[in-house]
Amino acid sequence: MTGVIWFVQVVHYPLFSRVGTETFTLYESMHATLTTLVVFPAMMLELISAALLILNDKDDWRLWAGMLLLIVIWISTMFVQVPKHSELSAGFNRAVHASLVATNWIRTVAWSLRSALVIWIISDKLN
Known about the structure:
Number of domains: 1
Number of strands: 0
Largest sheet: none
Radius of gyration: 17 Å
Shape: elongated
Mean pLDDT: 96
Order of helices and strands: HHHHH
């Protein structure tokens, strides 16, 4: 998910402003549908696997920190990014678009930190 969110942050969301107002509503609708098909199953798998890892090792604070980051990601997704996409579904709005790009840094940073934790945990387990 970290690779996906960096692509979205650096390439995909900024290019929304280049779609054009005539076709933006259709583009946003298709974007929401297709992105959900790809991202939602991966996010669910990530959440379930994080919970299972905690159940397996309740004492590793890094697993709890990773879960906290997932909670931040899910809250940001549901209460910040999804509502902004809903606003954009009515038509392109520069202020909403700028806010979407800016607030998406919450998820970008959280997933990046989570990846660092996962790499650290795997490194420890392999040594």
